[in-house]
């Protein structure tokens, strides 16, 4: 019985090795269309690791073809879905350099923006309701820039409406970040820092609730510094905005991403 069990394990191992060998051979020898179709099937099934394997084979074996272009686009998608954000951004950047005139530039910009936005988020903070406006904002600023480039250069893109909504959310979040810093300085009587911070908010985020909330901080800072006229100007600005209500911007829902339809090609 023990020998039979041993032989069975050996047989299973041989079959496994054979299957891996055949799979490897398929990736090494299959034509581009077959590899790409297989990769798309895995993507639709949510098997991103297998999809990535086939897409990377397409990209390395058929460089310069439309299949390679399509494979890179799908690799960005797969990396984003698996939260491999560094790989998504690296692939997006490489795509923009290699295909500066691609008809899918709007998609790449959108995916880069979503990726940078995701980098600025934190699932644990979401779960516990922590206000992320107090966290570091570099990724969110980059995401805003990505969305802005998309909106300005591709106003008719199907991704533009969602980009506009996400820009509003990011702007609101960045303004709240600045407000928290102004409050921090105010508690420490750093009046010059408070005035400068709120002045920047007026210049950059004038249409946000956080900026309206910051105006009294600026008035108080000027009063403490003995800058009477500037304090009066701040008071005038506060009175001019009395009764004005700006609702906080809700975080947009996670986009229901779907794979774009690529151009049909006969490249091999």
From TrEMBL:
InterPro entries in the cross-refs: BamD, BamD-like, TPR-like_helical_dom_sf
UniProt region (Disordered), positions on chain: 245-268
Biased composition (Basic and acidic residues): 245-254
Gene Ontology CC: Bam protein complex
GO BP annotations, alphabetical order: Gram-negative-bacterium-type cell outer membrane assembly; protein insertion into membrane
Endpoints of the signal sequence: 1-21
A Pfam family the protein falls into: YfiO
Record localization: Cell outer membrane
Keyword terms, alphabetized: Cell outer membrane, Lipoprotein, Membrane, Palmitate, Signal
Superkingdom field: Bacteria
Location (main, coarse): membrane
Membrane topology classification: Lipid-anchor
Domain Outer membrane lipoprotein BamD-like: start-end pairs: 29-237
Biased composition (Low complexity): 255-268
Function: Part of the outer membrane protein assembly complex, which is involved in assembly and insertion of beta-barrel proteins into the outer membrane.
Quaternary structure annotation from Swiss-Prot or TrEMBL: Part of the Bam complex.
Family recorded in the similarity comment: Belongs to the BamD family.
HAMAP family found in the cross-reference section: OM_assembly_BamD
Name listed for the protein in its UniProt record: Outer membrane protein assembly factor BamD
Organism: Mesocricetibacter intestinalis
Gene: bamD
């Amino acid at each position: 019985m023990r020998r039979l069990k041993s032989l069975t394990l050996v047989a299973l191992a041989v079959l496994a090795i054979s299957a891996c060998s055949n799979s490897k051979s398929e990736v090494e020898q299959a034509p581009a269309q077959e590899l790409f179709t297989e990769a798309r099937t895995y993507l639709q099934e949510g098997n991103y690791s297998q999809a990535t394997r086939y897409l990377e084979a397409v990209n390395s074996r058929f460089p310069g073809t439309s299949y390679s272009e399509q494979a890179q686009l799908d690799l960005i998608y797969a990396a984003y879905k698996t939260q491999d954000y560094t790989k998504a951004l690296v692939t997006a950047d490489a795509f923009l350099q290699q295909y500066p005139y691609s008809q899918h530039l709007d998609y790449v910009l959108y995916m880069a923006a979503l990726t940078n936005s995701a980098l600025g988020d934190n699932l644990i903070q979401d779960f516990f309701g922590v206000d992320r406006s107090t966290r570091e904002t570099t990724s969110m600023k980059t995401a805003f820039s990505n969305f802005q480039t998309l909106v300005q250069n591709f106003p008719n893109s199907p991704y533009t409406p969602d980009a506009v909504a996400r820009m509003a959310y990011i702007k609101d979040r960045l303004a709240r970040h600045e407000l928290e810093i102004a409050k921090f300085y105010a508690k420490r009587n750093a009046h010059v820092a408070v005035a400068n911070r709120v002045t920047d908010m007026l210049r950059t985020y004038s249409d946000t609730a956080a900026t309206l909330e910051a105006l009294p901080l600026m008035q108080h800072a000027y009063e403490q510094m003995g800058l009477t006229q500037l304090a009066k100007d701040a008071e005038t600005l506060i009175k001019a905005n009395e009764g004005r209500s700006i609702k906080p911007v809700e975080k947009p829902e996670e986009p229901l991403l779907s794979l774009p339809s690529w151009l049909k090609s006969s490249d091999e």
